[in-house]
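Progress note, sequence design subtask.
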């Protein structure tokens, strides 16, 4: 039976996020110091995104609670969600985040993963059907502008993509950024993302899928395909996908269809592999829906997605190394 996002799942994931968004410690700072004045704690450096163990997880934790509230307005956690966003999304706090980003040695901070999630959060604010959302989106606008400009500056000079299955994966970042550009009618950014994706990936054929690596939470091959699904017209994508994974109907490369083993969920890097199972399920479901009815690859992808989901869903909660972020990827998979 196909598992979908339900109000029960949404409530569970919302509670997990609400528990960690304002939890300052433990915290893994990605922080460059230009001098002793930069030796500060997470909340002093990041007055909004100081929780959830790291900056990018806090960003997509806010995306998660607002997305779940958008999907299920009657969530029992609705009042708490509105309260925590209202408390943190203020002009003073945005100014504090910008002050950090504007330091010369922080130009590359959180590129590209955090950049993309920040824009996804901005898109969610833009589409949110709440009276408070207009004010939140207006207050948030300077952060949105900053990361749009950083993508516009960076992508033209990025000669090569990063294909790893971790935070540096460019296909994932471009997919979220493209969604943002389309949802907020930023045509020039949309064109830049599409041109970059085609420059990097359009001619890829016969993917070998040398994965997983031991700390990956994204499938480099499936994430690339999921980006190109967004980029190309449907018929052109089906042909590109056939060339990219020519033996998919025979379940090859076999590694893509076997859920990965997670041996220690208290180890932050090994715990990434639960996220890989979830993100594979997300991509496999989405890619299957893009194929023609009757295509044997649809069954292969849907069946694999369900196995990956069943492997990972029981472990979204249990240890902080996973529960500070896995709810987001479970939501992506369950909605695909």
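Output:
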């Amino acid at each position: 039976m196909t598992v979908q996002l339900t109000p029960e799942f949404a409530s569970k994931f919302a509670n997990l996020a609400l528990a960690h968004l304002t939890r300052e410690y433990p915290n893994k700072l990605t922080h460059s110091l230009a001098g002793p004045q930069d030796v500060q704690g997470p909340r002093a450096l990041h007055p909004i995104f100081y929780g959830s163990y790291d900056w990018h997880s806090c960003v997509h934790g806010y995306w998660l609670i607002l997305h779940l509230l958008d999907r299920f307005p009657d969530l029992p956690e609705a009042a708490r969600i509105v309260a925590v966003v209202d408390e943190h999304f203020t002009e003073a706090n945005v100014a504090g985040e910008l002050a950090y980003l504007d330091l010369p040695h922080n130009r590359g901070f959180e590129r590209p993963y955090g950049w993309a999630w920040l824009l996804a959060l901005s898109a969610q604010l833009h589409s949110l059907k709440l009276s408070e959302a207009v004010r939140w989106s207006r207050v948030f606008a300077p952060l949105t502008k900053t990361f749009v400009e950083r993508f516009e500056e960076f992508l033209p000079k990025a000669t090569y993509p990063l294909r790893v299955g971790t935070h540096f994966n460019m296909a994932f970042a471009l997919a979220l950024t493209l969604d943002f550009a389309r949802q907020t009618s930023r045509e020039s950014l949309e064109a830049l993302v599409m041109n970059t994706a085609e420059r990097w990936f359009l001619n890829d054929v016969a993917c070998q899928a040398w994965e997983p690596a031991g700390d990956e939470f994204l499938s480099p091959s499936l994430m690339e395909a999921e980006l190109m699904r967004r980029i190309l017209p449907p018929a052109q994508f089906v042909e590109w996908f056939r060339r990219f994974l020519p033996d998919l109907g025979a379940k090859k490369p076999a590694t893509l269809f076997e859920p990965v083993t997670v041996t220690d969920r208290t180890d932050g890097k090994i715990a990434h592999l639960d996220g890989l199972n979830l993100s594979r399920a997300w991509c496999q479901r989405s890619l299957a829906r893009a194929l023609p009815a009757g295509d044997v690859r649809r069954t292969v992808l849907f069946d694999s997605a369900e196995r990956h989901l069943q492997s990972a869903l029981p472990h979204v909660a249990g240890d902080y190394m996973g529960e500070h972020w896995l709810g987001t990827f479970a939501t992506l998979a369950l909605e695909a």
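The chain has one domain: 7-27+42-335. Work on this subtask will continue into the next period as scheduled.
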